[in-house]
Prior knowledge:
The structure is a homodimer of 259-residue chains.
Chain A: H1 3-26, E1 34-36, E2 43-45, H2 46-62, E3 67-70, E4 84-92, H3 94-100, E5 105-112, E6 115-123, E7 128-133, E8 137-140, E9 143-144, E10 157-160, H4 162-166, H5 172-178, E11 181-183, H6 188-197, E12 202-207, H7 209-221, E13 225-228, E14 240-245, H8 247-257
Parallel strand pairs in A: 3-4, 10-11, 10-12
Antiparallel strand pairs in A: 1-2, 4-5, 5-6, 6-7, 7-8, 8-9, 12-14, 13-14
Helix pairs in contact in A: 1-2, 6-7
Amino acid sequence: MDNDEQSKTVKAVKGWLLEARDDVLRQIDSRLKVDTKSSRSDLVTNIDRSNEKFIVNKIREFDPDAKILGEEGFGDKVTDTKGRIWIVDPIDGTMNFVKQRNHFAMMLSLYINGQGVLGFIMDVMNNELVYGGPDLGVFINTRQMVTVNDSKLQDGLIGLSGPMVVHDDFNMQEIANTSLGMRVYGSAGIDMIAVLKGELVGYISYLKPWDFGAGRILAETIGLKITTIDGRQLGVLSSEPVLLATENAHHDILTIVKK
Amino acid sequence: MDNDEQSKTVKAVKGWLLEARDDVLRQIDSRLKVDTKSSRSDLVTNIDRSNEKFIVNKIREFDPDAKILGEEGFGDKVTDTKGRIWIVDPIDGTMNFVKQRNHFAMMLSLYINGQGVLGFIMDVMNNELVYGGPDLGVFINTRQMVTVNDSKLQDGLIGLSGPMVVHDDFNMQEIANTSLGMRVYGSAGIDMIAVLKGELVGYISYLKPWDFGAGRILAETIGLKITTIDGRQLGVLSSEPVLLATENAHHDILTIVKK
């Protein structure tokens, strides 16, 4: 992707996200239509759906030959990573959205032949857009982000999935105890922004492609490490426990996971 | 306390908190001097100290006969609840302050003969001041807060202390499982604002008087319930596990705690 095409794409996506954000804010006090999916804590609302439709339509217009993988199913059935793939999470942290009207994100990313090109995470209520890619660097709103300190697990706070802590999956409780404290925010997008900013040294949760698609590109661009929980390479289309962390904390966490 | 005195007090305290906030923001990117207190996760910084000194001096000027209980010890030795007592937490969530420069609060409250009169919690980085008391109601910045929905535990998110979850104190893991999800924010002030706004149905943590002094007044004013973890009345000068929740979630949680 040449520079011109890239800046044209960034400009277009920013426009969609701002428009989608306005739309969410306009409806923020309305009564939501909430349905459960796989469990009582896996929710989808009318706004997740309308927001995904809106973004999918924008992508179709802008990039008609690309495939689209969307959380709520308005994209395509994507089975391999050939060509251009857009990954869309219209509302990440739907439980927070429903119960808090706060602490949720919109996420969008573009992969070409399995390589991450551009990622976008918008913290809707904080009006914070973190975006970028390997050719561009990472920006938070208009400010370019510098490299994150390579902190150790024992010197930082760690973002975890609540259920994984309670079930002590992969020695999650020892990971929490080794850190200076665990935090549970309930949205991959919000957690990943915190890691990108250096507020957390890492984040662990069971994730799907739309949960980590954007964050992975941003994380790798800024020198963070993102793999499966046991250190394997993360597939673009994987659904599994994901470990995002500074290089040092990643090493510390893997040591505990593999005990 | 008559109405005139009350509005004069509110105006004064708002002024101190805004001035203290400006001072913190001015130093937000500076290198902090960090010391540990009771453990490696119990921190105090030069800013906690200077901020407490600033507030204590303001109180001494404004209310010379009152006693002051401050987290960092610049107040008085307070052993009973007679008379006017100001309770000060200059930086609540010091670990977040140190590691995140985000998600921390300043808290201040006034008790007269053991009765809560006014409470103030300022989310510094969100520029959100929640304040009020039984005669005044509760305000978030300039907007009066209405009563919170009396949600059940099973219908809401619950704010917990990370260590209490990991150690499964008081059946904390069953409490998390019963709710729609646990959140761990790491600051009593930030957690209590979330409960006051209805973003969480409750919050449980081991707290000291400066951690709950302000939140207790605001919570009781707005119809929330705050007690010890086993449902006893909370003393103004107590240090123990505290349970703040909606009436319904309070009942649900007590049932699980007492199993």
